[in-house]
Design goal:
heterodimer, A: alpha/beta, Rossmann fold, four-stranded antiparallel β-sheet, 23% strand, B: 643 residues, alpha/beta, five-stranded parallel β-sheet, five-stranded mixed β-sheet, 21 helices
Chain lengths: 274, 643
């Protein structure tokens, strides 16, 4: 990023999402153990950790797919445990998945339009005859979707079926669909997995733009350390279900526990290879 | 010819054609129209904003980006104030930009987006004269804190404030404008050496456009898609000058990668494209044909052959037979019409190729499908166009007749000389180059050799200095051979060697789309361009394609040996110009080892190539590449089919 960039985020210090002391066990497996995480409004926070550290489980609890065994999660001051995933989405929490979950027979445009579904209010009958509110709504929603298509540079793919697209592009469409929800909090589960360097750079730029332009709070799970260290405001490190450290990217790179648990393994591997 | 300026024409159009569309831009999926009255408002506000920030008569404003209405308006705004517009290639690397921005003493740059702004900002320290950078698309730029950066909207807002206290000031500046003022300073990429700044006055540009408009009856109701680089004189001439003169509508595509779709939606009536685009269109068409069902493929081939035969007959002045005419009628319904529609050329009345010679086979293909493709010829120094083929006189071998009142003369050494009101004022700050390019009575030396044929058409043979001789003194025109090669859908670019050599050899860059598609259909796995071009199967494929080309070449000009390059020819590496013309000398120098290997009979060559990334970083690519001999006498039994 250019040195001329000013940090845009107003340091309101307001807590957007508060996860406190949550645990989740699957039989004997302690997927998440007593994790506390406070996310400020407009913050871009990354969660890193080795495989099976509980990162996706944590995301699943925030988005309502799992119910934590203990602890509490509140979003904008409201307790959201026990709320259905669809209602959580309507509150403004959107997510993308580690494995792409697009409707493969549908076009890019229709996939993104689907993301607007929770924002549509017209009833079945008026939608069916496409009249009155339904028509007005459709036009307004399409305008918002076009804005996202422009934002993510998908203009040439509008009418393409999503299954024919390259992997990196499908990831981008998935991000567009999540953004179509007009989320206040965006959960991204490995948005750059399986991408080449150029695609990663594009995706990193899009994520930063979402964060800066719309002030969307973002929780990012990502394995590419270079990207994480480059774009995050703060990094939390999970290891075997527990949060072992949290702080600025610079601090995390120096933190002894993090080096042993995460970066250390890579370092050891590198040393072993050398 | 009436003496006027571009801004005065804009004012005239804003009055006489106020509610008619001047420009359209596809944005968020919808074509948005700007009338002439709106265009004038935009230009006036921007010009006021420039005036408020200190832009004065004689100052220069550069634009860089894809074709956007605001970049065209910015150029006109500069001209309103008596300034000069300097359009730049959007894909230029930083070092090229630095040269132009410094040489032209640019004080204001209007950039399309963050990518371009970043490039300019990285050079800012070296450009003390640069005072203001204006951007069109604010995305990603909101948080840049630097005093020189302003958004287009901000500058226009400042302009409205300024004109509230200085009413009519822009109009007053337009009144002061002289037709002989410098309107456009455009840098020729040049196949040799450093770019040169070509100075063109309002009179230069307008006389060229006026002559062309008169010859072709282009009207206010015509439509054009503006997608060619704004720094190319062809685009300036049509999208800035001719549109002001005639009043037709310029349409800006949504993004560079949507051009084909936008073209189809719009169905423009004017289409101007360099050979590269026509070659691409044909390649795309062939890929799609190969991917379709056998029945469709057969039908396509059948009607294509029929149409090409008819076109050849027409070329000799004969009409096709009654039976053939019936077939053509059927073909029109089944194939030709739909193909034209798919290409977005169904309504195209004025279709031109220019900028470089187009291979005769490609030319013939489009014409036989009912597209009125004609050659035009000119150069930046001639304000764009100097000659064109009138309807009914299209011919792949000529560049048509010079447009009156342009005069043409062939010098004793065969060089084509042109004199007209469109001949440029000179190269900026290069009086020596200027006096080399102009004779004493202001004929422009084009650097092309040529002759006038029986019909009065100008025939441009080749860049005069490129024509050579083979060892047995047979004349050798590399471009002729290369164009033949490029007709093969598998070959994207080729450079032929043979001057003072015993035989012809060629460096070939494969077409990644078609060869990749071919590889997929033949279960050939590959990872990258380099990998694909190194496959022996691909070498055999290209060898066969060259064998086919050889069959249509005179014996001495046949290609004996070739090599598949491990990368594409790239303007960032200086191998081609930004308008995609091969820089022959540079390529010959860069690949001297390859050329030596061709003629010393080596079977392979160690090739070290330097790759330049768009941000100026460089990388070295080393590999051993096989040199292939073209099998002689293995001529194809039938018409070369793509599949």
């Amino acid at each position: 990023m250019s040195g001329d960039v000013n940090d845009p985020k107003a340091a309101t210090g307001e807590i957007h999402l508060a996860v406190s002391g949550v645990s989740k066990h699957f039989g004997g497996v302690r997927a998440v153990e007593d994790v506390t995480l406070l996310v400020g409004c407009g913050e871009l926070i990354s969660i890193i950790g080795p495989n099976g550290a509980g990162k996706t489980s944590l995301l699943n609890m925030i988005s309502g797919f799992y119910r934590p065994d203990t602890g509490s999660i509140s979003f904008e001051g409201k307790d959201i445990i026990g709320t259905r995933p669809s209602d959580i989405a309507a509150m403004g929490i959107a997510r993308t998945f580690q494995n792409i979950a697009l409707f493969s027979g549908m076009t890019v445009l229709d996939n993104i339009m689907l993301g607007r579904h929770v924002r549509m209010k017209a009833g079945v009958l008026s939608s069916f005859i496409y009249w009155g509110l339904a028509q007005k709504e459709e036009v307004a929603h399409r305008a918002r979707v076009e804005e996202l298509i422009e934002f993510l540079e998908l203009e040439d793919l509008r009418k393409q079926p999503s299954n024919g697209l390259a992997y990196g592009l499908r990831k981008r469409v998935e991000l567009a669909r999540a953004l179509a929800l007009d989320p206040k909090l965006l959960l991204l589960d490995e948005p750059m997995g399986g991408m080449n360097q150029e695609e990663k750079e594009d995706m990193a730029r899009f994520i930063l733009d979402v964060n800066q332009q719309w002030g969307t709070t973002i929780i990012l799970i990502e394995h590419d350390m270079a990207v994480v260290m480059d774009i995050s405001d703060r990094v939390a490190v999970l290891d075997r279900g527990r949060k072992i450290a949290e702080g600025s990217p610079g601090e995390m790179q120096r933190h002894p526990d993090v080096i042993t648990a995460y970066l250390g393994t890579a370092k050891a591997r590198m040393e072993a290879a050398a | 010819m009436t003496a006027t300026t571009l801004p005065r024409l804009l004012l005239r159009n804003a009055e006489t054609m106020a509610a008619q569309p001047a420009m359209r831009e596809k944005n968020r999926g919808i074509w948005r129209t700007f009338t002439w009255a709106q265009s004038w408002d935009e230009v006036r506000d921007f010009a006021s904003g420039l005036a408020a920030s200190g832009f004065r008569r004689g100052d220069k404003l550069a634009v860089i980006g894809d074709n956007r209405p605001r970049l065209y308006w910015a150029q006109l705004a500069a001209q309103c104030l008596g300034g000069t517009a300097v359009p730049m290639y959007q894909d230029s690397i930083a070092a090229e930009l630095a040269f132009v921005l410094d040489h032209a003493e640019i004080s204001v740059v209007v950039a399309e987006d963050q990518e371009q702004v970043d490039k300019i900002l990285s050079l800012k320290a070296k450009l003390p004269r640069l005072e203001l950078i204006v951007y069109d698309d604010p995305r990603g730029l909101r948080h840049y804190k630097t005093g020189v950066l302003k958004s287009f909207d901000e500058l226009q807002a400042a302009g409205r404030e300024f004109s509230a206290s200085h009413p009519g000031s822009v109009e007053a500046e337009i009144d002061k404008g002289d037709p002989d003022d410098l309107a456009l300073l455009t840098y020729t990429s040049g196949t040799t050496g450093h770019p040169k700044g070509v100075m063109l006055s309002h009179t230069n540009l307008l006389s060229s456009a006026e002559a062309f408009g008169a010859a072709e009856d282009i009207r206010a109701t015509d439509e054009m898609l503006c997608y060619l680089p704004m720094a190319w004189i062809g685009d300036s001439l049509f999208s800035m000058v001719l549109t002001l003169l005639v009043g037709f509508t310029c349409n800006c595509p949504e993004r560079p990668d949507t051009v084909q779709r936008d073209l189809r939606e719009l169905g423009p009536t004017i289409a101007l494209a360099p050979p590269r685009i026509w070659e691409n269109m044909l390649t795309q068409l062939r890929v799609r044909t190969a991917d379709s069902t056998p029945l469709k493929r057969k039908a396509f081939e059948l009607f294509r052959t029929l149409a090409e035969r008819a076109e050849t007959r027409r070329g000799t002045g004969k009409q096709p037979s009654a039976l053939a005419r019936l077939g053509l009628l059927l073909g029109e319904v089944l194939i030709y019409g739909p193909v034209r529609d798919q290409l977005g050329l169904r309504r195209a009345r004025w279709v031109y190729t220019g900028g470089a010679p187009l291979g005769p086979d490609t030319f013939k293909f489009f014409r036989s499908f009912g597209i009125n493709l004609k050659q035009v010829w000119g150069s930046t120094e001639l304000s764009g166009l100097a000659s064109l083929q009138p309807d009914g006189e299209a011919d792949p071998d000529t560049v048509g007749r010079v447009v009156p009142p342009t005069e043409v003369r062939i010098a004793e050494d065969g060089e084509v000389l042109i004199r007209s009101a469109g001949v440029f004022k000179g190269y900026y700050k290069q009086p020596d180059a200027t006096s080399d390019a102009l004779t004493e009575d202001r004929w422009f030396r084009t650097g092309d050799s040529g002759f006038i044929d029986r019909r009065g058409h100008l025939v441009v043979v080749d860049r005069a200095k490129d024509v050579g001789k083979l060892a047995d003194s047979t004349p050798f025109a590399p471009q002729f051979v290369e164009n033949k090669l490029k007709f093969s859908p598998f070959i994207a670019e080729a450079v032929a060697f043979g001057d003072r050599r015993p035989f012809v050899a060629a460096i070939v860059a494969i077409d990644l789309t078609t060869v990749g598609n071919w590889a997929e259909r033949h279960n050939l796995a590959y990872t990258s361009f380099q990998d694909l071009s190194g496959k022996p199967e691909v070498r055999r494929l290209i060898g066969a394609a060259i064998g086919e080309v050889n069959a249509s070449l005179p014996a001495a000009a046949r290609i004996n040996r070739f090599l598949l390059l491990n990368k594409e020819f790239d303007a960032d590496d200086n191998e081609i110009t930004r308008t995609r013309k091969v820089r022959r000398r540079f390529v010959a120098e860069k690949y001297a080892a390859v050329v030596e290997a061709f003629y010393s009979g080596e079977q392979e060559v160690e090739l070290t190539t330097e790759i330049t990334y768009e941000d100026g970083r460089k990388a070295i690519l080393t590999s051993t590449i096989a040199i292939e001999d073209v099998v002689k006498g293995a001529e194809p039994a039938r018409e070369p089919a793509y599949a």
